[in-house]
Amino acid sequence: MYRGRFAPSPTGPLHFGSLIAAVASYLEAKTQGGEWLVRIEDLDTPRCVPGATENILCCLEAFGLQWDGAVMHQSTRNEAYRAALDQLRARNLLYGCACTRREIADSAVLGIDGPVYSGTCRNGLPQDRAARATRVHTAGAHITFNDVIQGTITQDVEHEVGDFVVHRADGLFAYQLAVVVDDAAQGITDIVRGADLLDSTPRQIWLQRLLKLATPRYAHIPVAVNRRGEKWSKQTDAPALDVKRPAATLTGALRFLAQDVPASLAHETLDNAWTWAKQHWQRRRIAATRGIRCDEP
Ligand code: GLU
After folding, report:
1. Domain around 282
2. Does the pTM of the predicted model rise above 0.90?
3. Which pLDDT belongs to residue 234?
4. What average pLDDT does this structure show over 224-250?
5. Residues 49 and 98 in one domain
6. Is residue 153 in contact with ligand 1, taking CB distance under 6 Å?
7. 136 beta partners
């Protein structure tokens, strides 16, 4: 049984960049007779925008992206995250960290995702310092996995990322932990998402191993980048989607995903556009690259 998902963060309206991930994950699931679930990643409450969840769900419906089952909301899942942390803590896999962001930046080498944590608090807190965040040990975390689109990915998490935060200094559970706990709880077998998360995947696989959870298959699609090479996102002011011409917008998303779309598809009804997409979807056409320049979706 195939079960995929789309997991947007409600930090603003759906934009072209996130629609691409929704369309790709939906088509992969539906063309394999699978289910497609939606999870709202409203974990980072200070970054959530009021009304964004409703807006995103409405937008998915307007594009005909009908999900299976109930929508999961991370804001209701604290107990599950806490239980996962308790399990790791009981096996001495976690430690408290007193370091501030500034201290880490000053003392660390730059890794693939910010400064590599050098392990200052790994063997106990310095005197007179209190723990702020909680980190997980990564000694021995040499991760190799076969991404369906990007090929073989290898990462030495300990040296390329360092022991990473699973419970943040501001009291929030970290994305890396929540996503692993939730993908397992929802029984996700296949994750199709933007390649901006490729470097996070080894951290997630490490947590799956420590928590004895199954590792889903991963397929990371290229993300749309603007002319400055930045990912299309709410932060880089990607325009909200045009829901009034959904077939045309869907056609743009399919084209971005390298599908051999006939020019007339943009003028079809949305139903016809989906029928074409389901009949002709070819994941193999998607390039094994992390970003594709896209100025005007
Ligand atoms: N919530 C994340 C985002 O909107 C996606 C997480 C994921 O797909 O694992 O970028």
Report:
1. 3-74+215-293
2. yes
3. 67
4. 82
5. no
6. no
7. 94, 164
